[in-house]
Every structure is written in C-alpha cells, then in structure tokens.
Amino acid sequence: MAVEIAALLIFVGVFVVSAFRNAHLGVLMFAGAAGVGLxxxxxxxxxxxxxxxxxxMVLLVGVTYFFGIAHxxxxxxxxxxxxxxxxxxxxxxxxxxxxxLTAGIAAMGSPLGGLVMAPIGMMVANKREIxxxxxxxxxxxxxxxxxxxxxxxxGIITYGTAQRAGIDLSPLVLLLVTVAINLLLLAVAYALxxxxxxxxRNGGTATSTPSLSSTERKPFTRxxxxxxxxxxxxxxxxxxxxxxxxxxxxxxxAFAFGAVLTLLDPDSAKQAIPRIDWSTVxxxxxxxxxxxxxxxxxxxxxxxxxxxxxGVPLLAALFICLIAGLISAFASTxxxxxxxxxxxxxxxxxxxxxxxxxxxxxGVCASIVDVSPFSTVGATLVxxxxxxxxRPRMTRLLMRWGLSMVVIGPILLVGTLVIPAxxx
Length: 424
Hints:
Blueprint: H1 2-21, H2 25-40, H3 45-50, H4 54-72, H5 75-85, H6 94-106, H7 117-127, H8 132-146, H9 153-164, H10 171-192, H11 195-201, H12 210-213, H13 222-243, H14 250-264, H15 266-272, H16 278-297, H17 299-308, H18 313-328, H19 333-349, H20 355-367, H21 376-383, H22 391-423
Helix pairs in contact: 1-2, 1-16, 2-16, 4-9, 4-14, 4-15, 4-16, 5-6, 6-8, 7-8, 8-10, 9-19, 9-20, 10-20, 13-14, 14-15, 16-19, 17-19, 18-19, 18-20, 18-22, 19-20, 20-22, 21-22
C-alpha cells in the first residue's frame, strides 16, 4: 500500500508544482507518469506510453481543426451578427441570446472559445443598461453548457473517459443534463440581477448598437454556407447515430467534414491548422497517461475503496463532487475532469451509484464554478466589464457566486440526478 500512496502523493504533487511554477501540467504529468511507471510500478516504458489516450487525441484534433475552419473563414462571426441582428431592442431576450451564442461557440471544440463573446456581451450590457452581473452569468452559464457538447473539450474528456472505463454514458445525455442545470442557474441569475426590470423595459429603449441592428451586414459567402451545412451535418450525424444507439466517432466525423471544407476552401484550412488545440491534447494526454499508471498499480482502486468506506454512497458522491468544484474554482477544469472521472470509477464499480449519473454530476460541479474570478473565465468577465467602477463589485459577486456553487452544485446534482437514478 505504501507504493500506491506514494504514487498518489506524486500525482497530487505534480498539480501543486504546476500551479506554483505556472508550468504546463501535461508535460509534468507525462514525465511523472514515466518516472512512477518505471521506478515504482516496474512497468516497461511501452506499457506506460500505451496509456496515452489516442482516441481522445483524435477527437480533440479533429474537432478543433473543423471548427478552426469555421472561425478562419468568418462563418462564426456571420452567425453571431445574424443572431444579434434579429434581437433588436428586445432587452429581455439579450441574456438568453448571449447564453445561446456562447454555448454554441463553446461547443465548437474549445470551451474557452466562448469567451470571444465576453467583450461583446459586456459592451451590450453597458449600452443597454443591463446589470453586468446578469450578462456575465449569461455568458458563464452558456460557456459551461456548450462545453459539454459531444464536439467540445469537456464533453470529449468526460464521456470519453467514461467509455474507456466501460461506463455507459451517452454524450447527448451528458449535454442535456448540463444544459438543463445551466438554464436553471441562468433563471436564478435572471431573478437576482434585474431580469424583471428588463421585462418591464422590453423594447422601451431607442438606443441601438451596430452589432445588433446593422442593416449593412454582408451576406454569407459560398464557403460560409458550405461551412454552416457541414456544421449542421456533423451535429445531425452525431444525434442520429446516438439516437439509433450506434456509437458516433466524433473525431473521425470531424475529420471527414473538415476534409470536405479543406477541398472547398484550402486557404481557410491552412489558417485552421494553428487553431488545433495541441496544448490541451498534451494536458489531457499527460494526466490520463499518469492515471493509467495509477490504475495498473491499483492506486485508483485503493482510492475508491477509501471513498466507499465513508459508509454511505451518497456521502461519497457528495465528497467527490465537492472536491471537483472546490479545486476547479482555482485550477484547470480540464485537469480536474481528466483526473477525477477515473478516480470515481471504483465507486461506480461497487454498484451502489449509477455511473452515468455520478460522472455527469462531477462534470457539472467542476464547470459551474468557473465564473469565480480566480479562474480564466471569471477573470475575463471582470476584465471586460466596461465601467471600471463596476469591476470591484463584479469581482465580489462572481467570487460569491462561484464559491457558493462549490456547495450548491454537489447538493443540487446529487439530489436531482444521482438519487433519482439510484431509485430506478
């Protein structure tokens, strides 16, 4: 047992050193996996490297390349302009529209891609006299919802890791759960931060912004129309295959549609190559490789046994979800998902908790805290607040919201998802 504990301590220590030195976690994790595998687990190097998740790498590269083309040829910008142009002065719809737009962009491979909406959303909030906190939470919840799409990073890591562990988790179920929870949080934000006032003011302002009502928007080009059709084709294919209970290989599908767009628009395809998220591939690959070494040593099973000794499975589930939210509020959500989902597998294997429900709960709890100003998302929302005098208030309120989600998230997810799933 001493060797397993030592390996787990090294695993945690790599997280700490990476945060302290601001070093790339994936590089340190891969080196740590090799060291622990060779010297503590007595594994040949070939077995250590075999733990690298090639399937997840294909997913990440294929999806980020495909949507990189959509960004490079201006399709994403055109979609944003068209959506905002239809809203006009209907103020009450703006938070919902920005939720949907941010979710859509976050679903295009990289969750942080949704942050491109932050400057636009906060500017519109300032011009339309919308509480910046409401707009910030619209953006934050939208990003969290879209991040768990089958085509985005959090969704890829969560359901991909679950599938590798033999847990039956549909990517569409994961997405629907995440969207439902984030819509609930948006409704709470709407009630707390001036939504009722927007309903009373709806259409009562004559102020307009070019991004919302421009009459000179350019029409979609031929390549942009083709890109929209390819996006609909990718999404539609994933839905059809999932509904018919056939496992969609989203990475291969993204490469296939991306290849079509490459032939139609080679210039945009070349610009999409640098948009491939190699940093995240390395991050996820390093963590999962280390987790593979821990699994081979039995350290993961030991951790699961310790969690199950809590006695009450629901308390163990609450504990894991609480850890996911607490650490993710200050550190990488991607790293937390890659690390905690495998650590929860022994608890699932005991048969006391439905695997799909617990994995969904962990994922949502790790993401809804991201509006904390200590994270990239929260810091961006504060930085893009137009009125400097509002930024201290935004920092204070986002900190309260994010840290409250550390506690509310596990209670909400376990109460509404895990407990009903156990009763089935």
